Amino acid sequence: MVINTNIAATNAAMRLDRNTKQMAASLARLSSGSRIVNPHDDAAGLAQSMRLDAKITRLDASISNNANFTSMLQTQDGLAQKMQSAIHRMNELAVLYKDMTKTADDKAAYELEFNQLDAGIFDMAGKEFNGVDLFFTDGKVFTGDSASTTLDDNNVADGLGRGANGDYKIKVVFDVNDEGTELKAAHKALIERAARRVEAIIVGDVSGGRAIDNTITVKLMDSTDAKGGTVAGTLAYAGFNSTWDGVVKAATGTVQIDEADLDPMLKGDYAYATYLHEIMHAVGVSSSHPNFKGAGATYDGANAIAKYEELTGVDMTGKKLVIENDGGAGTAGGHWEGTDTVDGIPGFSNELMTGTVSPGSAMPLSGVTVGALEDAGYEVDYDAADPWTGANTGTGPAGGMVIGSVESVKGAIQGLANYRAQIGAQLSYTNKVNSALAIEKENMMQASSRIKDTDIASESTQYAKNKILVQSATAMTAQANLLPQMVLQLIG
């Protein structure tokens, strides 16, 4: 036996220290619920759990994004249902309008309601969702923690016309200008409305059976886009870029609009008339028309002249229509004469395709202009023209659907049905993707939990064991510390 070195006490103290640390670790795991309290508890497991947790966070964000897109789709469908209800009423009004027993006043009342419903439909098409274009924005569905799929926009305004039934179809493409600025949804909807109106007028295929007969790109002007080199003084400018027949049947066109005029046009309620005017230029009613003989000259197309005589009662024997000779390069030579009487033929005054837009007054798109399209070689529907019998007469312009053209309403019904089906398909797809993401998230959470979370039952058992061992080691350390005192018995 020795006094200076107590091996038994040292050994007992070492075991007491180890057991105390193990009990402290168990307490930390039980109190925190985490198996990895300190990095050295499981360095590899900590790295794995961090990667899994980051992936779970991204999956949460993807699920949230998809839920927001679902809300957007549900809003689209809710408005589409309201559009459907309005179009069904318009469908009825268009047939009632044909009744031979109805007076002019009866028909005017029908037309008023019809046009108000049409305006309301396209107003809904121009709504926004949290500052984002509701119907003019491509959808995005997140299919994983970082991957996504882009879905077509649900531009219902594209289908609200006769073109949806396979007749003449205009595709409007909205582009940004050099400054990266794009039209707002309200203006896009009105431009689509104008395109649908032209589809009601031009009814025959011009592209040889293709789905799209005319693609018109619309954007805000750059500082050098406007004809003449500057934006100042230019409300809008349009024309065709290519043709199917090498003459005037437009295959592609462009409409450019002065950004400074956007709000005044909406407030003055003449934005739609302006856009319809420009799209008519883009399909060929312009100085490029073969029967427009230039500024200060005349128009010699037989169909337009015959229609003018029919509508106004003016004898056109040996006469021609007069073309605008005032204004700049974008006005003179490409419009009907507005105010002057030439060779006994009065100016067109308020007709839409004169050189000026008149806010607050009727601007009918007359049968004469429809006749000019027929002169250009298009197949047309004169029932889609606005009432006009001469200077300062008539109403209009009518909207994307025209009460005199039942086919325009039937096309809108089909077009809306197509887009509602697309919205429904996108909703179904998004919901299924979100369900799959939820399953993936659940399994990632389970994997992460197995690495980092405490098994309470197992850890409680370990804690009980360590607690007993600490108590035992404490007692044995006390006993071992008594061993040197036994040496005194030998010395005594």
Structural description of this entry:
The strands form 4 sheets. The chain has a 4-stranded mixed β-sheet with strand order 5-6-8-7, covered by helices on one side. Strands 1-2 form a two-stranded antiparallel sheet. Helices cover 48% and strands 9% of the residues. The protein is rod-shaped. The two termini are 14 Å apart. About 1% of the residues have low confidence. It has a domain of 66 residues. It is built from 11 helices and 10 strands. By secondary structure, the protein is α/β, with parallel strands linked by helices.
Unreliable stretches covering 5 or more consecutive residues: 226-232
Widest sheet, order of strands: 5-6-8-7
Overall structural class, as computed from helix and strand content, comes to alpha/beta
Approximate shape: rod-shaped
Number of strands: 10
Strand percent estimate: 5-15%
Helix content: 40-55%
**Would you tell me the overall average pLDDT?**
89
Q: Please report the distance between the alpha carbons of the first and last residues.
A: 14 Å
SSE string: HHHEEEEEHEEEHHEHEHHHH
| Whole-angstrom Rg | 39 Å
How many individual helices? 11
Q: Please give the largest β-sheet.
A: 4 strands, mixed
